[in-house]
């Protein structure tokens, strides 16, 4: 009986101490919130591009009596080249500077309106763009507009349709303006892929000849060519800075 009384007293004391001990135990902290990777577009980048270009040009042939329209035509061809630039990101705004250069094969030959015995060939074989960018980023997706200066290298030839002999030729470099829009996506911290459209206003370019006489008896002293170019390119860029440099942390 005495042993049962001692056991009952011990059990009662243990029952009173247990809640106090439970109250003194540390409460386990909740797990931290997950870290979400946020893409950052800041940094130098270099890349390659390729696509398609179309040029719309009108030719005037200059005679001693004045300019005579020789016709307008579209010509199209492939583009391939590269670009290099730098971007700064502030919140969702992205500013950038870029230089782009492309080899081109945009060429067209047409019969002259003033003399069906001659044809003219216009060719653009190089295009350069020097532009500033303004973009809006949604994490790894970037939509931007760009504008600046454009330069093209062109060649203009006149030849005899009957004999195939060249009558006159001129190579020239012309400057104009460029405006474009593009979309780019970062599929890894350093690599991006995108598509871009650009329109180039190249104005009018005049070239002088040393008195070319056509088979039809016209004397040509020069030419004037107006030109606009549309470009659509697919771009792949690599941004420098090491793996993970393009990401920040957001909790």
Automatic annotation (TrEMBL):
InterPro entries: Beta-barrel_OMP, OMP-like, OMP/PagP_B-barrel
Keyword hit for Cell division: no
Residues in Outer membrane protein beta-barrel domain copies: 17-240
Pfam families recorded: OMP_b-brl
Key words, A-Z: Cell outer membrane, Membrane, Signal
Subcellular location(s) of the protein: Cell outer membrane
Record carries keyword Membrane: yes
Residues in the signal sequence: 1-22
Record family assignment: Belongs to the Omp25/RopB family.
Protein name per Swiss-Prot or TrEMBL: Outer membrane immunogenic protein
């Amino acid at each position: 009986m005495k042993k049962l009384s001692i056991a009952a007293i011990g059990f009662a004391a243990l029952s009173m101490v247990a809640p106090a001990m439970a109250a003194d135990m540390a409460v386990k902290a909740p797990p931290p919130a997950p870290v979400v990777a946020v893409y950052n577009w800041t940094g130098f980048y270099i890349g390659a591009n390729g696509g398609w270009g179309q040029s719309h040009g009108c030719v005037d042939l200059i005679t001693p009596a004045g300019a005579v329209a020789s016709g307008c035509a579209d010509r199209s061809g492939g583009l391939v080249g590269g670009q290099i630039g730098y971007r700064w990101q502030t919140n969702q705004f992205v500013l950038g500077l870029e230089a782009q250069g492309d080899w081109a094969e945009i060429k067209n030959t047409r019969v002259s309106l003033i003399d069906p015995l001659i044809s003219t060939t216009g060719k653009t074989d190089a295009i350069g763009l020097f532009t500033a960018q303004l973009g809006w980023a949604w994490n790894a997706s970037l939509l931007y507009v760009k504008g600046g200066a454009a330069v093209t290298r062109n060649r203009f030839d006149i030849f005899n349709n009957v004999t195939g002999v060249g009558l006159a030729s001129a190579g020239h470099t012309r400057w104009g303006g460029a405006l474009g829009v593009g979309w780019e996506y970062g599929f890894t911290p350093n690599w991006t892929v995108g598509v871009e459209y650009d329109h180039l206003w190249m104005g009018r370019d005049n070239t002088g000849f040393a008195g070319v006489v056509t088979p039809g008896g016209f004397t040509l002293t020069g030419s004037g060519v107006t030109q606009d170019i549309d470009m659509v390119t697919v771009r792949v860029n690599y941004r420098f800075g090491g793996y993970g440099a393009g990401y920040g942390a957001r909790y």
